Amino acid sequence: MTSYCKIDHVDKIYTRGSTETCVLKDITLDIEKGEYVSIIGHSGCGKSTLLNIVAGLTDATTGGVILEGKHVDEPGPDRAVVFQNHSLLPWLTVYDNVRLAVDKVFGGKKSRAERDAWTLHNLNLTQMTHAKDKRPSEISGGMKQRVGLARALAMEPKILLLDEPFGALDALTRAHLQDTVMGLHQKLGNTVMMITHDVDEAVLLSDRIIMMTNGPAAQIGEVLTVPIARPRKRLELVTDPAFLKCRQRVLEFLYERHRFVEAA
Amino acid sequence: MNMPVAKSDISASIPSAPTSAVAKIVPLPLRQTAMNTRLRATFVKVVSAVLPPLIMTILLLTAWQLLCMRPGATLPTPTKIWTEAYDLIVDPFFVAGPQDIGLGWRVLVSLQRVAIGYGLAAVFGIALGTLIGQSVWAMRGLDPIFQVLRTISPLAWLPISLAAFRDSQPSAIFVIFITSVWPIIINTAVGIRNIPQDYRNVAAVLRLNHFEFFWKIMIPSAAPYIFTGLRIGIGLSWLAIVAAEMLTGGVGIGFFIWDAWNSSRLPDIFIALAYIGIVGFVLDRIVAGVASIVTRGTSAN
Ligand SMILES: Nc1ncnc2c1ncn2[C@@H]1O[C@H](COP(=O)(O)OP(=O)(O)OP(=O)(O)O)[C@@H](O)[C@H]1O
Ligand SMILES: [Mg+2]
């Protein structure tokens, strides 16, 4: 009852014509303040749907989400989302993309100069100040995600929602961004809910890993607490028995007990 | 165009920066050759853009000349046009009487008419397109109607417009308006329809209100579509000018053609056609230029 963010018996049924598809079935999850939670599962199991329900972009069919004692019924900047495909507005510069969010969220509370400083501060957190006057089409995929992250952080959300933020990136860029996100989580203490396909990424970043069964009617199959102290170091973890054990558990869940049936 | 050249300039000067004293002499000739290659590049570019159309024009004029030199040819040769319409060609802005003025003046009068008709079409078309694009049902109901209406020739609108307005000036402007408004409406509506869900999600998370959503998401996102409509529209409204000016009489370029036909001044018509073609081309380039400035970044997603 007292948890920071509570996903409470959420069902999601899509109706198209006379056919009903049950995507999510009875999802219940409590997230503590400052916790980093990953959701992992095979493609199409309903991870994005769950994240969108928390964001308020999709309505749950039954059940609901309660954030800091308040029922979530519409999207808002207290649940900032970093989308898989960056979703920056291409006609605005990097700075203006972040500034749009800052102006909207802090329009009445901060002065013009403060908003400018806050925008630059957040670009600085994600190391994107150097490209602030570029347009999204002029920067790389990894940089776009950094800007998306800066925009989300700038809203000072109660919970940060990341939908496969590193999905479209190459391995090196991905590792670099993971380190940035890990550092920021350490520094700012955000509550984060992240969707991922990548087992190593989930273990590296999370306090808890939520493993989802295959759809239709996906459920939470297993919850794994990652008992690795922070700050975590990528290189040291490779040989850490706790890391290997967690990895093993997740892999077993995904590839033995809940194999992706449709995969060719 | 300047970007890559500037970049190579910088990279050329970087290696010379750490080397001391002696290197100071090196940049000068280096930069000069850079200047030279840049000049040469522009020269080549200009020549390759201008030369082919120039050669083709000469070839076509020659062919025309040869074809119309035969006895019994119905159309004048280019040389005949040159001698007979000499005053029209050399001075676009002469005034020799109330009805005897240069074609430059006539084009300006026509442009004024087009500006009013097209301006109205742009404002009305974007506004209506925005409204229609928001509703699936309005789109479904109206799109087929617009698709039919847009194929009607400016000439066909003439009698209806005259019957409705009973005055030549507003009728002429209406003909321009009605010819060019359809593509603007249709393209704007499609642009509004096609706003990516991602942008809507961003707007939702930020809780943009209707007004902010309109100005900060809708219009910029639909801008490439809107400009496609505007570009088709300017072409059509210039196409409609001859039809429109058959009504108004006076001094427009369209009426000039009609008048020249009635008084059998065939060479003058050719000159007027050249004017119309060139002005239409320039108008199209202007709208395209504005579009590429306004939608910079948007289309290259
Ligand atoms: N608007 C919708 N109408 C009907 N079905 C939908 C709709 N949106 C999603 N679905 C279905 O819900 C299921 C879950 O989709 P979702 O996007 O949440 O999956 P996911 O786990 O995020 O997949 P991925 O890992 O590929 O992103 C899919 O089978 C999809 O076909
Ligand atoms: Mg997804």
**Count of discrete alpha- or pi-helical segments spanning 4 or more residues of chain A:** 8
Say how many strands of chain B there are.
0
Distance between the termini of chain B: 20 Å
Low-confidence stretches of chain B: 1-27
Oligomer: heterodimer
- The fraction of residues in strands of chain B falls at under 5%
Find the count of extended strands of chain A (DSSP E, 2+ residues). 10
Q: How are helices and strands ordered from N to C of chain A?
A: EEEHEEEHHHEHEHEEHH
User: What general outline of chain B do the C-alpha atoms trace?
Assistant: globular
| Average residue-wise pLDDT of chain A | 91
Protein model, in words:
- The complex is a heterodimer of chains A (264) and B (301).
- Chain A has helices spanning 47-55, 94-106, 112-125, 141-154, 171-188, 199-205, 234-237, 241-257; strands spanning 5-16, 19-31, 36-40, 62-67, 70-71, 81-82, 159-163, 191-196, 208-212, 220-225.
- Chain A is an alpha/beta fold and 264 residues long.
- The model of chain A has no long low-confidence stretch (mean pLDDT 91).
- Chain B has helices at 2-13, 27-69, 78-84, 86-90, 103-133, 136-149, 154-165, 168-193, 197-206, 210-239, 241-248, 253-262, 266-294.
- The two termini of chain B are 20 Å apart.
- Chain B has a domain at 86-294: MetI-like fold (Orthogonal Bundle).
- The longest helix of chain B is centred in the first third of the chain and has 43 residues, at 27-69.
- Mean pLDDT of chain B is 84; it is low at 1-27.
- Classes of the chains: A alpha/beta (264), B mainly alpha (301).
- The complex binds adenosine-5'-triphosphate (ATP) and magnesium ion.
- Magnesium ion is lined by residues 47-48, 163 of chain A.
- Magnesium ion binds at residues 47-48, 163 of chain A.
